Amino acid sequence: MRTEDWTKEEWEMTVQLERITAQNAEEKHQELSKRRKSERPRRTKKDWLRYAANLAAVAVLLYFLVNGTILFIFRALWTALEKGLSEEWKLQGEGIYRGIALAVPLLGLAAARLLLEQGVKETPMRLKPNRPWPEEKQIWLFVPAFMGLSVIGDMVTSVVRYGLEALTVYPPEQVVQLPENPLGVLYYFFVICIVSTVVNEWLVRGALQKIFEPWGAWFSIVVSSVMFTLLHADLAKMPAIFLESVLMGLAAHCTGTLTVGMLLHFSSNVISFAFLFIRQKMQGVESFAMLVYLVVIIFLAAAVCIGRIYQKQVLRSFRPIPWVYDPKNRQSRFERLATTPLYLFVMIAMALRALWPMTGWTMPFWLT
Question: What sequence ranges are listed for the domain CAAX prenyl protease 2/Lysostaphin resistance protein A-like (predicted)?
Answer without folding.
Answer: 184-271
